[in-house]
Structure formats: structure tokens, C-alpha cells
Amino acid sequence: MSSLIWYIYEFARKTWIDGFFDAKSKEDIAHKPDRFRDFPEVIKENCIGCGSCTASCPSPNAIKLVRDSDSEDAIGLIYPVINKASCIRCGFCAEVCPSTPKTLECGENHFIREEFNIIPSKRKYIVDDYLCIRCQKCMDACEVGAIEEIDDRLVVNQSKCISCGKCLEACPVKGAMKGVFVNNLEEQKKIIDYAVNTLEEYIESKQDELIQLGTDKLFLDELSFKPILDKSLTLLNDEEVVREVLEDAINR
Length: 252
Prior knowledge:
Elements (H helix, E strand, L loop, with lengths): L1 H10 L2 H9 L3 H4 L11 E2 L9 H5 L6 E5 L10 E5 L9 H5 L7 E2 L17 E5 L9 H5 L5 E4 L2 E4 L9 H5 L6 E5 L3 H21 L1 H6 L12 H11 L3 H13 L1
């Protein structure tokens, strides 16, 4: 009985009652330090859909690209979505985001390293100075300002380039802007040598037919592409790269 009276007395005290009604929630008492890194904020209108954020994220399923439905007036926006249950707030996505202004932000004090770039691409874009006509259409097409004019030459700043390929699409001179596969260069050289040698041998075997061919007629090429492709894939097991390397070699 005495214990019950004591509890009633304790709960009835004015200080306890005042504390109960004046209690603050965690949101009220939390003070974020100046360098606090919160979950990334997404400004989806700035996104260029390059995928750098998803490529750099070290936490599985923390960030993914989604696309809004298309409307009659516009194509749906592509932008990243943050899964807060998986996000570890490392800030890598904001660091590598190449869009200007940024699509991802982690607070005003977050340190953005402009030279740090992670791009999910096999290509490196370069300008062929002998073919370039300095029209600067590639500069206008580049959304991240990666193409610069230095000493009357156009140069791709690789630390800014996101390998989107829009410069290549905009270039009016075939071959002036090149998308080079930067990996497996030795294998690519072997594929080119093999393709060129195969074509030369085939042409030599058809010399008699070519000599007899009239100037008003075309020679029907019967060389099968599949054996060349199959052999090339044994040298480099990446069909996308192999097909493009072969196409360039055969065109030349």
C-alpha cells in the first residue's frame, strides 16, 4: 500500500507533470553539425541520365535510375531515386555527378571534387585534329562542358567527359570525333590485322573476276561475315566492341 502511495505521489509532482507536457521529440532536440552529410537530395530536372551515380554507389540497391512516363509534349525525365533503407550517406553519388547544376546534393558543406569522375563506359572520346573543321558543334552538344578550345584545337577534357556520345552524334565530319574503346587495345589490334588480312586474301582470290568486271558493273561480295566475327570473338570476348572494331576496319 505504501508503495502505491509513493508512486501516486511521484507522478503527481508538478515537476514531472511539467516535464511530461514540455517533452521534446527527437526532431526538436537534434542539431545537425555544419559538416553533417544527409541523404542525397535529388533535383531530377538537372539529371542527364548518364548513370554515374549508380556506377559509383558502394551500397547495393541504394540508388537507381527511373524514368517518368512520356507525355504528348515531352519525353519522361530520367533521374535517380534514393533508397534510404540502403543508402549509407557516403556522398559518392554527389561527388561523381557531372551535371551542371548538380542533380545530387548532400548538403551545402559537402566537398565536391570536380576532377573525380566515375563513368560506366568503355569509350574514350577524342578529337582527330587532322579531320576537325573547328565548327564547335561538339562543344555546343556537350552537356558537361568537357570539350575545350586550346591553341585553336578542340580537346576533350577526360576528367569531365561522361562518355554520352552526343559530341560524336553532332560532329558533321565522319571520323573527326572518335569513340575509342580504351580497354584491350592489343586484342583490338589483332582483330583489325586479322580482318584486313582476311579481306586482302579474299580480294586476291577474286582478281580474275575483278579484272573481267566492266566499269558499269558492281562486284557481288560473297564473303561471309560470321567466320570473321567468330574468330574475332576468340581474341576478345566482347561482341559489342568486336562488331564495332570490325565494322571500322572493313569500312576502311
